[in-house]
Amino acid sequence: xxxxDPRFDLPGMLIDGEWSPTGEHGLAAVRAPYxxxxxxxxxxxxxxxxxxxxxxxxxxxxxDDFPRSERVRVLEQTAAALNDRRDHFAKAIALESAKPLKTxxxxxxxxVETFAFAAAEARTFTGEVVPMEATAAGANKTGFTLRVPVGxxxxxxxxxxxxxLVAHKVAPAIAAGCPxxxxxxxxxPVSALLLAELLDGLGLPSGWLNVVTGGGSVxxxxxxxxxxxxxxxxxxxxxVGWAMAAKASRKKVRLELGSNSPLIVDFPSDWRTAAAKxxxxxxxxxxxSCISTQxxxxxxxxxxxxxxxxxxxxxxxxxxxxxxxxxxVSCLITRDDTARMREWVDEAVAGGAKLLTGGExxxxxxxxxxxxxxxxxxxxxxxxxxxxxxxxxxxSEDFGEALQLADAxxxxxxxxxxxxxxxxxxxxxRSLHYxxxxxxxxxxxxxxxxxxxxxxxxGNTREGPAYAxxxxxxxxxxxxxx
Length: 482
What we know:
- InterPro entries: Ald_DH/histidinol_DH, Ald_DH_C, Ald_DH_N, Aldehyde_DH_dom, ALDH-related_metabolic_enz.
- Residues 445-464 are annotated as: Disordered.
- This is Acyl-CoA reductase-like NAD-dependent aldehyde dehydrogenase.
- This protein has helices at 47-63, 68-84, 86-97, 101-124, 164-176, 190-201, 216-224, 238-247, 271-281, 303-315, 335-350, 380-383, 399-407, 422-431, 465-471, and strands at 13-15, 18-20, 27-31, 38-43, 129-130, 142-149, 153-156, 180-183, 209-211, 231-235, 252-256, 262-265, 295-299, 354-357, 370-373, 390-396, 414-418, 436-439, 473-480.
- By secondary structure, the chain is of the alpha/beta class.
């Protein structure tokens, strides 16, 4: 890493319009996962910081001093300012999360779109007219609904998209008129604090955005159990998410959790395109995405050709420093995760799987992109969320078997299906129990305006500005009678 790489001197965490340079538990260092160099010092918050932040948000909600027209202005200006600073944010993302720089630039550009879509929705979301006079009980009454803020929003974001997944929580909350308390991932708080600085400079009234940095077991739990939080939006693991929901049973809890996303490659289909896309979708950001392509089911007539197309592409991925413009795959977020990859691969091979490529760690915690064929059903590389650069390939006898295998999961976020048969595409769309079924695409595809979320252990929400705003508001019925 060169000496002119940016390091970040951050003002602290934002509470009630003021920047606090330290937290209840002092300061914590943020280090680059790739080489351990310091990226920034951030406050280590605690329950008292959370309480101050929530009380500040409650005060903002009561003041009601952030009208919709101003919220639209802030969202539009944030999109423009982010666009101007995309490279700066991309470098922050790459340093703190080890996401390769060229991939980090894509995330920064997507965050621009997320704020732009939230601004558009903020201009237009509305209630509806209720046909009261359709019944005798409603005679001479005019009815309509208002969309009112649900209350204080607690947002807990993960490390893998430290800017755009923060944007997917903050931007809809601003649009909906909900004050927000954000806890970014403790490994990657820098992008979130830079975004908060940007928003603060655009004139948010105090209390409408608060950011408390710190560990999930301390700050996250304090947020989830605070009496004055009305709505929790959480992105992370299924185990943590459902445990949080159990603790916050009287709140509105929306979870976007993990998956072991399947890709079906049927006969006939454009299987070469499927292989090309899978060679990226299974390994981008070292597979650390909840919709990373993980399980591939290929029709037996196509399997040999598919693997001949896939393997050279995977082996050609460039490994190394995330700040290098040529890097495709860098390290995992911790060395423990790197060690876990090797353990899971060894387990699969011991159970009869064939290791086709990869399967080993190289320098700086980088795990070589790995393809495993015929893993046993119970192997963790198949049944659990890998969250690493490992893809499995299984040969299927026919489309029906592929559908059954793809659906045999406790997760259900997104599935991909490559087929030239429209009838099979519609059959997959109707039968696969997933939040999204993407035809002739990998499951790793997401547009920021789409309804995004899953079923089963993949969560209970749909993100995307329009859909998040819907969930962050409540309908209030108003009737008028002369």
